[in-house]
Amino acid sequence: MQKVRVPINSFQYGEISDSLLMRTDSAVYSASAQSLQNMIVLPEGGVKRRHGFKYGKNANFVTGAAANKKIRLFSWVTGEPITASNSLSDDTNRYVIGIGDGYIAFPFTSTLLGAQILTQDVDSNALPFDEDDLHEYNITRYGDIVIICHNKFAPRILTRKASTTQSGQFDFEVSVFSFSQRADNKVTFQPYSTFQDSGVTLDPSATSGNGITLTTSAAYFDTTGSQTGGDYLSSKHVGTIIRYHRDEITITSVQSSTQATGNVHENLDVRLSVANPLRTTDGSATVEVTHINHGFQGGEAIVISNAVAVGGINANNINGSRTIDSDIIDENTYSFTAGSTANLSQDGGGSVEISSHAPSPNFDEQSWSAVRGYPAAVTFHQNRLVFAGTLTEPDSIYFSKIGSFFNFDVGDAADDDAIQVTAALGEINPIRYLVSNRDLQIFTGSAELYIPTFQNQPLTPTNLQIRKQTPYGCEFVTPTPIDGATLFVERGGRTVREYLFTDNESAYTSTAISTIASHLINTPIDMAVSNSSFDTSESYAAFVMTDGTIALFNSNRAEKRASWTKVSSDFGSFDAVTALGNVIYATIKDSDGNYYYGSFENTTDFEIGLDGWRERSIVSNEVDLSSIAGQPWGNGDTVTVLAKDADDTQLSHLGTFTISGNVIDLSAYSAFNYTTAYIGSAFTSKIITNPIDASMGNGPATGEIRGLTNIVVDFKNTRSAKVNSRPLVTTSAFSGKKEFRLLGYNRTAQITIEQDHPLPLQVNGLVAELVV
Question: In the chain, how many domains are there?
């Protein structure tokens, strides 16, 4: 028989898939484990028991049909207090918000924030949020506003404002995102797009007024629902703006797929963009007009105004009603016959306006509406508000003017004008998320793109480029930056990748980071990144899975460390997650279908190893639970109780108790004078090493029958532990190396470290003596 001592100095790669259990040659194998359940990988390479899930409140914020349904969490750090007299602490600017089925709710993150529940917008319309779509919602924040997006509803703005009723507090309201308008309200600075097929024309019945008839040469208008009184009352086109030669008309009713009625905002005329657009020929009455993309046909009637004399033809013989010559010169030029003959060949005419209501293909429609859909993605980037991905234009991106977030007028493509662009890359890439990072990163359902940022240059209409990078596609889980990269879930929900720019390739790569722990990735539905979490300096990404577990990813690129661990709870199934500062917040659903909101944080001097825990005073050897609103425990339920010693030096595990009369009876421990109890549900923390292996004189021990004799484990501040069923005997927090003697032989030779009691556990490493 041969003996060899095998060290496990680090668990820096976390929990790995059992598909890697033959990779004993790999550095990953020797610094990982087969299971790290409810353990956190520390920067030094050791592992410790995770924080318990602290109960915050019952997440049934509303009653009726919306109660006991999913909510989506997001964090919000606002600007400084918005009233000059407000001297509140920074905590008043940090919130965790819940979006539910038809409402927005505010858990008690800030001590000064009341339990506000919003179910209507400022115009008393019901909020459009739907439980089935919550995981698809896209959110961005800027100071005291939050913008919420989805294809099915117009973007909503959540605004914080100073309370008018309570000094030092804030109120919240929801409104529909609205675009800036010209001072006379006749022009709306919103995106417009062309939706008609080539050659389809629009024929207004007049150049001004209300109730004019709009006729298209092919089916165009939405005819949803049945007709009443000749109108389709349910048409989604009603209320939208259509532009004829860039002049706005609001549709007021729809009579058929080719006919609608509308109100003209101002006369249907256009000032020609070319200066001096008229050209005369000596001895001819024919005048050529340069009118970019005019869309007219020969014989159409137009009205010319504001023209000045040119080529010897005075203004009176140019202005007024004219007929376009039958032969159209080209798409940008046509001609008409003036009232007199020119005596000079000349370009001129000044600033000319053309008015007409002739059938023309030169019309467009607002890009976002009930009939065309709304943007799915939103972010702020380089002082612009950016939207993308409507139902009708899934690969289009819309940038606001610089510094003017509600103005999307593309104007004349000046550097600060709004930008409207389509990612025409050979196939339609439906945009799901935008991330403002080193560049503007674009995550679609089929590929990853980006818009590069140029050094010392802002994005402008003339330098913007869209570049396709990788072909994986993104699931409906918000991509989130961590440690210099952006994490996203690949289409199909089986792989997590990091989107990272590499200088060697001068391009973005999408490297799979979940390969070594593929068994933990089970269709993620939510993700959050928290920095300096779990009382460490590390960044952690928490992925909520459909099975109710959380896969916790830790990354430190500088030290080339990355790890995965599994978080689960006997208290229930995790359902949503967000991060605020260094704390991860979540909702959890118990076996009765009730949702609870809380956080993974340590708000005491002790590590509380319970989920759904609350701190309660012990009075007369009893814990009274009657004052906890919406608590997860009731009469007949069994809970685990930890108690603080009288000298406040450590916790003691008192065991499990059944609640009766909203009271937990601790009279059996009256002699210990406990004053504070922590009540909750115990969770299992467990370390299972990879099979202990080594290279012997005649080759590797892989698969051989072998035994583990002596195990030396390095603990820190540990109160409860078992090593292959051998207990750590201690009455206080133990730090140091402890030897455990084992018996038995098998082909796996694994070490399991677990607990009898939910008390602190930290393992820095171990050394195993292997006998083959």
Answer: 4
